[in-house]
Amino acid sequence: MNFSNRFIFLMYLYVILFFFFLLTPLVVISILAFNDASYIGFPFKGFTLDWFFGDEKRVGVFNNEELLNSIYISFKTGIIVSLVSLFIGLFSSLYFEKSNSKIKNFFYYFGISPLIIPGVILGIAILTYTSEIVMFLNNKEIFAFDDYLSPGFWLVVIGQISFISSYSMLIIMAQLKKFDPTLEEAALSLKATKFEVLRYIIIPFLKPSLIKAFFAGFLLSFSNFNTIVFLVGSDPTLPIYLFS
């Protein structure tokens, strides 16, 4: 076996072992979900669906209203966060790629700074800042923003947008760098407006990255814990509910 074949063999072996290590815990947990035992673990004592549909001795997933509500909150949060982050990421990437402003580098590094800040610290900072705003507004007898800036659903949305929009921006920018500017110049020379260029040329070109950014944002939102652990109210997301 020459060096090239040996390298290919080792690469295949590495990929197989990687996915085996990644998927084995999921397979084991999936099997134990049907185990007729009062705890998660072997030996397998028999088949049961109580962990899904039980309502007396064991409250199944589909009969646990608090769990189902946390799943709903996570989906609702994920959809809103991913859409808003997609919008912010799209126009931020257009600004950074097309602007000739001398301070755009400052805004760029400011925009990606949430990615290097630990999530817990980011969450505490958001909570502290919004609490100060609420106190200031309350002193002015302005109470309209209490529901949005106090711990609860909307503060979770704000907290997640603060860093997920950075991911969306980087995903979109990666594809925007491959865009041929002559296409835009040709459209403008044919009397197309900038909005028409954006709608009919740039956005269709960016469609794959927009889809990636949306799903990446949704998954990041759905699984996020450390940033929002101090921001949740009475309706926790799924990760917070499982932790509590």
TrEMBL record:
Pfam families: BPD_transp_1
GO biological process, alphabetically ordered: transmembrane transport
Subcellular localization: Cell membrane
PROSITE patterns: ABC_TM1
CDD domains in the record: TM_PBP2
Family: Belongs to the binding-protein-dependent transport system permease family. CysTW subfamily.
Keyword Glycoprotein: no
Annotated InterPro entries: Bact_Polyamine_Transport, MetI-like, MetI-like_sf
Stretches assigned to the ABC transmembrane type-1 domain: 71-244
Entry keyword set: Cell membrane, Membrane, Transmembrane, Transmembrane helix, Transport
Membrane topology: Multi-pass membrane protein
Residues spanning the membrane: 12-34, 71-94, 106-129, 153-176
GO CC annotation: plasma membrane
Organismal lineage: Bacteria, Pseudomonadati, Campylobacterota, Epsilonproteobacteria, Nautiliales
Name used for this protein in its record: ABC-type spermidine/putrescine transport system, permease component II
